[in-house]
């Protein structure tokens, strides 16, 4: 028995052979067999025999190319109808000619001449008796058209289809009433050329671009050396250190799902018109337009009914889609595509963006790339259940910043109470201090950041610069630039359980004021409760990323709305910021620990030791972190401070008193410097504060009062 793969090839060869024999028989080059073939088919179809050689050749070639058994019958049927129609046309014209010449129909003469063959004779005479000559001619033309259309459909090469999904049903009624829509599918490899918007906005900005072919893949891009602020050259890590995207999403039978959605809504009295379908890496979004007078709450209330009808759980209804008069129904894909950081970083928007702190977030439901600028957020809260993808997201954010900024421009302070997530970044030249593990050092790091924030405000005020970007543009030497500082806390809940008052106060103080001086917070927690994410923290951190959470209550705690409990996990997230009215669903990129180690090790080998400016920052922070808890507590509770005498000496020698002065001279935080000023006032060394006026210093020397 022949296999299914061989049968079409054998049939194709046989058809080509018949076509060649029939062609050679016209010239009497195929022997007795050719003459028998010629006489037999000439008797059957008359002059239509001249159609057989090209038709058999084309049919055989089609069998060899397509190799599908189901096209045998259509091709043979097309050949039969085409020759039948041509024979009928020839017989009809012959019949018309005899009728005009003789004045009637001589059936014997028609049979003897048989220019249309016996088949044409048997078809034409009955049709002529019932319909007449004119209608017989039209019927034969219709048969020719039908046969030709069938052959054209199966002989011409197929065009690329928009989607690879099969038809939901062969029913003619189903096809007629099936909704018409446009399908957009994500391509895991193609990149897009896009320009970064020049207009700056106050809030964080999201950049999403459609997939367009023709742009070089990530593997084709070369390593570039870029300049930051036109002064610091930085060789970016090569993209080969990261893995490319893998796989392609499979959304199932999208046309059948579209019919099911429309029918289910109609069963509940909701008339809708299906619109486009967006196939993303994780979910497929079916968009629809409700009829006039339909309340959106009626559609959102049918979440469980749609989930039952589609046999998919969980589904999410976005009503309406921001900026569009449509409702989106997001159905999980049967097979998810793996989004990797490499294709996001190689994207033209990321490569050409002037933003120093651009973050690669992932891909949205339409497969478009999504980026956001941390400098415009300016702080970020990340929440989600265990295993939902928080730590991988933090790694993506860190790598995004490392691929854009040298150590002179960007510094990290990493806090990892779990002690297992961030140690890989130790000895990275971008770190101000080794990864912090305990609560006391975290409190001291927050206090140091507050002091550094106050110092930077004084520097910007003296330089008459509005923010850190304007200040760095005016610096002539690279060692005079002020680096960005990003504090990343991997687990806030553990810190809040131990020292909630100090942690909350420090985070709120930094979140309120630190944006202009280039200090930013990224805080993550796996327990999004009101005890961890307090009202003050939420009010000051408006940009939030939420991965899958356990309940709707947790979702409302982070986003102030439900939705995160219906996410799918494994990097499926909702992103919201101050300039977005509703959360945006994004599939975060996946970065393995091996990729992180490769990038970190490469930077360690390439980058030189940091300049003196950042070394001073590191030494100051290290000194603050080594402060004992007793000293810190006694200082903030009002006890004697060991730096009191030194502060007194600084104030008397400089003949002025301010918290910022003590911060710079004593390398302490703002809170401690302010407490020292209060103690000096209590001792009668300095006068009380009078608004914007400087305090008076009552001692000209250490020994006597003026």
UniProtKB/TrEMBL annotation:
Homohexamer. Forms a ring that surrounds DNA. One of its GO terms (molecular function) is DNA binding. Its main location: membrane. The chain crosses the membrane at residues 12-38, 44-64, 71-93, 135-156. It is a multi-pass membrane protein. GO terms for cellular component: plasma membrane. The keyword Secreted does not apply. It comes from Candidatus Nealsonbacteria bacterium RBG_13_36_15. The lineage of its organism: Bacteria, Candidatus Nealsoniibacteriota. InterPro entries: AAA+_ATPase, FtsK/SpoIIIE/SftA, FtsK_4TM, FtsK_alpha, FtsK_dom, Ftsk_gamma, P-loop_NTPase, WH-like_DNA-bd_sf. It is found in: Cell membrane. PANTHER family: DNA TRANSLOCASE FTSK (PTHR22683:SF41), SPORULATION PROTEIN RELATED (PTHR22683). Keywords: ATP-binding, Cell cycle, Cell division, Cell membrane, Chromosome partition, DNA-binding, Membrane, Nucleotide-binding, Transmembrane, Transmembrane helix. GO terms for biological process: cell division; chromosome segregation. PROSITE patterns: FTSK. Belongs to the FtsK/SpoIIIE/SftA family. ATP binds at residues 384-391. This is FtsK domain-containing protein.
């Amino acid at each position: 028995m022949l296999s299914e793969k061989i049968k079409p090839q054998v049939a194709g060869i046989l058809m080509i052979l018949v076509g060649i024999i029939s062609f050679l028989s016209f010239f009497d080059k195929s022997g007795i067999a050719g003459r028998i073939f010629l006489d037999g088919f000439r008797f059957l179809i008359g002059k239509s025999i001249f159609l057989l050689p090209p038709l058999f050749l084309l049919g055989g070639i089609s069998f060899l190319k397509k190799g599908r058994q189901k096209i045998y019958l259509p091709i043979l049927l097309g050949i039969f109808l085409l020759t039948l129609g041509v024979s009928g046309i020839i017989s009809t014209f012959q019949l018309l000619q005899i009728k005009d010449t003789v004045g009637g129909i001589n059936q014997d003469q028609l049979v003897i001449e048989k220019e249309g063959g016996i088949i044409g004779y048997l078809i034409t005479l009955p049709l002529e008796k019932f319909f007449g000559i004119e209608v017989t001619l039209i019927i034969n033309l219709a048969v020719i058209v039908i046969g030709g259309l069938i052959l054209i459909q199966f002989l011409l090469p197929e065009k690329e289809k928009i989607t690879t999904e099969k038809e939901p049903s062969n029913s003619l009624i189903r096809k007629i009433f099936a909704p018409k829509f446009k399908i957009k599918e994500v391509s895991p490899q193609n990149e897009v050329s896009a320009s970064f918007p020049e207009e700056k906005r106050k809030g964080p900005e999201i950049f999403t671009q459609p997939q367009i072919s023709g742009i070089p893949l990530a593997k084709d891009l070369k390593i570039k050396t870029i300049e930051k602020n036109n002064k610091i050259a930085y060789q970016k890590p090569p993209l080969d250190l990261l893995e490319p995207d893998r796989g392609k999403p499979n959304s199932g039978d999208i046309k059948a799902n579209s019919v099911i959605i429309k029918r289910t809504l109609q069963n509940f009295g909701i008339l809708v018109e299906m619109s486009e379908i967006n196939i993303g890496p994780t979910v497929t979004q079916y968009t629809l337009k409700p009829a006039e007078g339909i309340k959106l709450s009626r559609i959102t209330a049918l979440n469980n009914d749609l989930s039952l009808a589609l046999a998919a759980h969980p589904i999410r209804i976005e009503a309406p889609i921001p900026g569009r008069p449509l409702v989106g129904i997001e159905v999980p894909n049967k097979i998810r595509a793996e989004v990797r950081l490499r294709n996001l970083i190689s994207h033209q928007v990321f490569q050409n963006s002037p933003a120093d702190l651009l973050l690669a977030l992932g891909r949205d439901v339409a497969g478009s790339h999504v980026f956001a600028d941390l400098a415009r957020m300016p702080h970020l809260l990340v929440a989600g259940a265990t295993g939902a993808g928080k730590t991988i997201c933090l790694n993506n954010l860190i790598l995004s910043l490392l691929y854009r900024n040298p150590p002179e421009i960007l510094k990290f302070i990493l806090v990892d109470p779990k002690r297992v997530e961030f140690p890989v970044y130790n000895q990275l030249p971008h770190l101000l201090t080794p990864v912090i593990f305990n609560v006391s050092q975290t409190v001291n790091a927050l206090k140091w950041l507050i002091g550094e924030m106050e110092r930077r405000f004084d520097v910007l005020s003296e330089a008459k610069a509005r923010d850190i970007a304007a200040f760095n543009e005016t610096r002539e030497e690279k060692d005079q630039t002020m680096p960005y500082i990003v504090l990343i806390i991997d687990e806030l809940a553990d810190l809040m359980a131990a020292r909630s008052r100090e942690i909350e106060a420090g985070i709120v103080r930094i979140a309120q004021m630190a944006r202009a001086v280039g200090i930013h917070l990224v805080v993550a927690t796996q327990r999004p409760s009101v005890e961890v994410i307090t009202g003050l923290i939420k009010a000051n951190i408006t940009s939030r990323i939420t991965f899958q959470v356990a309940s709707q209550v947790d979702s409302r705690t982070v986003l102030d709305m439900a939705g995160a409990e219906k996410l799918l996990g494994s990097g499926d997230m909702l992103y919201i910021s101050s300039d977005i009215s509703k959360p945006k669903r994004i599939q975060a990129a996946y970065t393995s620990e091996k990729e992180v180690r490769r990038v970190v090790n490469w930077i360690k080998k390439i980058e030189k030791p940091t300049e003196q400016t950042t070394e001073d920052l590191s030494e100051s922070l290290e000194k603050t972190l080594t402060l004992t808890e007793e000293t810190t507590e006694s200082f903030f509770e009002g006890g004697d401070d060991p730096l009191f005498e030194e502060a007194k000496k600084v104030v008397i020698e400089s003949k002025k008193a301010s918290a910022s002065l003590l911060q710079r001279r004593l390398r302490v935080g703002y809170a401690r410097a302010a407490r020292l000023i209060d103690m000096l006032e209590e001792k009668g060394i300095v006068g009380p504060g009078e608004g914007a006026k400087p305090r008076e210093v009552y001692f000209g020397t250490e020994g006597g009062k003026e």
